[in-house]
Design brief:
The chain is of the alpha/beta class. Helices cover 34% and strands 20% of the residues. It contains 15 helices and 18 strands. The strands form 3 sheets. The chain has an 8-stranded parallel β-sheet with strand order 8-9-10-11-12-13-14-15. Helix 5 packs across helix 6, helix 7 packs parallel to helix 8 and helix 9 runs parallel beside helix 10. The radius of gyration is 22 Å and the shape is globular. The structure holds N-(iminomethyl)-L-glutamic acid and fe (iii) ion. Fe (iii) ion (FE) binds next to loops.
């Protein structure tokens, strides 16, 4: 990843701190997981338009090494740095030039790694073919599986870098990345190794998820009860190898009528959890299938999609929201849009019921070929009727919680990792307002400027 030195910023390469000045607005998202009416509270710090560059009350952020050390009005931040024994002279300065500072965006649901593309399915869907119908005919996920099995580790890494670079340009600093286009052990291990390697390369943190149960592969399709036969194979033959490799942080299952049942999903997710992989699931994407209920029952970190949860599923998520292990509903509205489906996730109902919402890109070659998370925020505002502030919480603090990282990332608070995005618009409300525009000026990852718009 090219690292551009910012004018007026890092001068000697030895500065361990950054002061980010000149923002019109800082959306801190401080105060923890958002749910209910609170999802609409971004905790803003705003500058006085007449204040000028020397305004003591102008909001600034200070980072030291890889952490945020202070945020607030300039005079208070400077005092806090003094108290922390951090001499101001050691800080390089970045000018936000009247833009907005937010936490670095977090994409809590991606299928980053695959080979090939599936533009042909767009034509099939336009002609009326259903998503699961294309899959049953050996297309869909299975066509990506054929291409991915044939791809080398180096090819997967090159593909991953290409799309991570694009994500970075849209202000993303952490993503989750699923396997699931191998469906055999060697390819699944290769996908998880690639995800892990890309995260280690940086600058984006990549958290690998084992999605062994993404579909039933071709070689199991002629068995009696193929999904059950493949479930047993996953439990007995694949999971031990995935666990021994130790790269996967989470496990996921496509729990959906016609794919994997709640019972099969439960067995896979609990077995993976016993190896330390925290559960999350594709739940009720196309039809009420018991996915939301299962997510609540097993204490999954997140239940994803939820375009068509049952009433009982919504009740179960609402009940979990009131406990100390809430399930984050990670909605993927770009998928509904790209599938040309008419039924979006009941986001307003979920918010009214106190369920914390995240949104993710679902980046994948079939149902959501976009890595542009701000565009997904736009779709969330237009189709899920989220406010811009709710959408921002959904890609920052709530997405952090959906990844089990709510204490480390997702907000601009002293002590958290210094993952920050500086936008070329004066308010967070403009981020979803300009669809698919390149609005990012600068991205800072762990206290290091890693992207600067040319
Ligand atoms: O989240 N629904 C299952 N998995 C992906 C799509 C995968 C594909 O079609 O390649 C999703 O939409
Ligand atoms: Fe997905």
């Amino acid at each position: 990843m090219t690292l551009r030195v910012i004018e007026g910023g890092l001068t000697d390469g030895r500065s361990m701190g950054l002061l980010i000045l000149g923002a019109a607005e800082i959306a801190t998202l401080s105060g923890g997981l958002r749910a209910g009416a609170n999802q609409d509270q971004p905790e803003l710090l705003s500058s006085d338009p007449g204040g000028g560059p020397e305004d003591d009350a102008a909001p600034i952020v200070a980072t030291w090494e890889d952490r945020i050390v202070a945020v607030g009005p300039r005079a208070l931040v400077e005092r806090s740095l003094e108290a922390q024994d951090l001499p101001l002279a050691r800080f390089a300065r970045i000018d936000a030039e009247g833009g907005t500072i937010t936490p670095g965006l977090i994409d809590a649901h991606t299928h980053l790694l695959f080979a090939g593309s599936r533009e042909n399915e767009l034509r099939l869907r336009q002609a009326g073919a259903g998503y699961l119908e294309i899959l049953a005919a050996g297309g869909g996920i299975l066509s990506t599986v054929r291409a991915t099995r044939a791809a080398s580790l180096d090819e997967l890494l090159a593909h991953g870098r290409r799309w991570l670079e694009e994500m970075l340009s849209h202000g993303v600093t952490t993503i989750e990345a699923k396997s699931g286009y191998g469906l055999d052990l060697p390819t699944e291990l290769r996908l998880l190794e690639a995800a892990f390697t890309l995260g280690r390369e940086g600058p984006i943190d990549v958290l690998p998820t084992w999605l062994g149960a993404h579909a039933v592969p071709e070689e199991f399709r002629r068995r009696r009860d193929p999904a059950e036969a493949f479930t047993r194979h996953l439990l007995e033959e694949q999971l031990p190898g995935i666990a021994a490799q130790g790269r996967a942080r989470f496990a996921d299952v496509f729990c959906e009528d016609g794919v994997f049942t709640p019972d099969q999903s439960r067995r896979i997710l609990l077995a993976a959890e016993a190896f330390g992989m925290r559960p999350r699931l594709h739940a009720d994407e196309l039809a009420p299938s018991g996915g939301a209920e299962l997510a609540a029952e097993i204490g999954a970190l997140s239940a994803d999609h939820l375009a068509r949860p049952s009433d009982a599923g919504i009740d179960a998520l609402a009940a979990a929201a009131g406990t100390d292990r809430p399930v984050v509903a990670t909605l993927l509205p770009a998928t509904t849009w790209f599938l040309m489906a008419d039924h979006y996730a009941p986001a307003r109902t979920l918010i009214d019921r106190g369920v914390p919402l995240a949104i993710g890109s679902d980046f994948n070659p079939g149902t959501s070929p976009t890595a542009n998370l701000p565009l997904v925020m736009t779709v969330a505002c237009l189709q899920l009727k989220l406010t811009p502030a709710e959408a921002l919480a959904a890609v920052t603090i709530n997405a952090a919680h959906a990844l089990g990282l709510g204490d480390e990332i997702g907000s601009i608070e002293a002590g958290k990792l210094a993952d920050l995005t500086i936008w070329r618009v004066p308010s967070h409300t403009q981020i979803p307002y300009w669809p698919a525009a390149g609005l990012v000026r600068t991205v800072i990852k762990r206290g290091r400027p890693v992207y600067q718009r040319a």
